[in-house]
Amino acid sequence: MDRINGLSDEIICHILSFLPTKESALTCVLSKRWRNLFALTPNLCLVDDLEVGGCGPNLVDFVDRVLVVSSNFPIREFSIKCRKSIDSGQFTCWMIDLLNRGVVNLDIDVIAGPHKEAILLPIEMFTCNNTMVELKLATGRFEAMLPDEDVSLPSLKTLFLERICFYNTDFCVLGKLLSASPLLEELTIRCVGSWQYGSCCRNVSSSTLKKLTIVCTPQLDFWDMVFDTPNLAYLEYTGLVPREYPTVNLESLVEAKLDLSFCLGISNPTNLIKGLTNVEVLELSSVKTSEMFYYFREAIPVFGNLFRLSITTDLEFYNWKYFPILIMISPNLHTLVIKGPLHADECEGEYGLSCPVKVLKITEYGGKSGELKRMKHLLEKLACLELVKVRACAINDKEKSRITKDLLMVPRSFNCNIQVKFSEKTNYYKHYKQKGGYCYPAMIIQDDPSPDSWH
């Protein structure tokens, strides 16, 4: 302890900055000198009721104390995760204080008030903010109003907005935020409905953006959407297909994950589909998305770079006529992943005479006769297969043995190997039960403890 006391306050504060806030705060009892040192660390991280008594008055008092004691001491990172209510006005005051201190990373995940009222974001968060590099606003309801001028986020690289509404009606909020952020590389927007009051502008235009996630609950407004993002490498997009995509510039796109719904006769995804030409990894995360590609198949380009394709199925709505559409026009497709149960229907389909798929992964397999029939069809049509990985579920060892034997007996090329793993983490029985089957508990098998990593 004497050696530590011999260190300067600056070094001690640096050491404390590597500890969780709860632990660094406990050092205040060591001596009078240590009473306030934890408040002079550049990083403040508070998580739920695991920290300083929870998100009630104790937390409010604690944060107030830290900000008072540290006076104008710069805070580089402020992170708070609170599932209990916190006063909106108090929270806004904290934000203004932190912004005045030049906070670099701001991560807010809170719920305000006993009735979950909206948190009003201070205007200073978006004006002349020269230091902010990362801004995350999650979980709670946030409201904001951008000024007509002076919006400036020159250092911002990551922006995460969840359940936020801007009350501006005279200009495109998203466009203003993007133009004010010349270094922005990652943008995430998650919302229920619209992120702007009135006519929501959905123009994503940025030459620096590399990762974009837009997850919005479908609303029947059909506003057009623009993707003018020439350097975008990753796109995750969930929502309702609008009337039009007037501009789509995705020339650098490597990976796309799509979960889209559409209305025939109104929605038009043509330009978006054509803009995916260069994608290397593509995931169709819903049956509706596969259906969209089927109905607008004339717009699908040749996917010359597509290496991995993931398709989500279900027992209720998936029609296997959707399945061959992308496979037939992907001359370099290596890995095909089917996320969901297999089942047989009247549609068998052709995948092209030279389908190049070498690896097939099935994530939910129960060994029913219809599934086995579909498996036989896949292995027959995918003539270049070298490896088939099946994640299966069985109720006992006898069932596991039967499933494994059936799969190994499926006709296939001499070079094709089949790997079967049994896992407790599968949605197969949930799907089967929905169709009237009997749901047995899954077996726990040691050789596949983490199925998610197997995808």
Automatic annotation (TrEMBL):
Residue stretches making up the FBD domain? 350-421
Pfam families hit by this protein: F-box (PF00646), LRR_At5g56370 (PF24758)
Note the superkingdom of the native organism.
Eukaryota
Q: Which InterPro entries match?
A: F-box_AtFBL13-like (IPR053781), F-box_dom (IPR001810), FBD (IPR006566), FBL60-like (IPR055294), LRR_FXL15/At3g58940/PEG3-like (IPR055411)
What is this protein's record name?
A: F-box domain
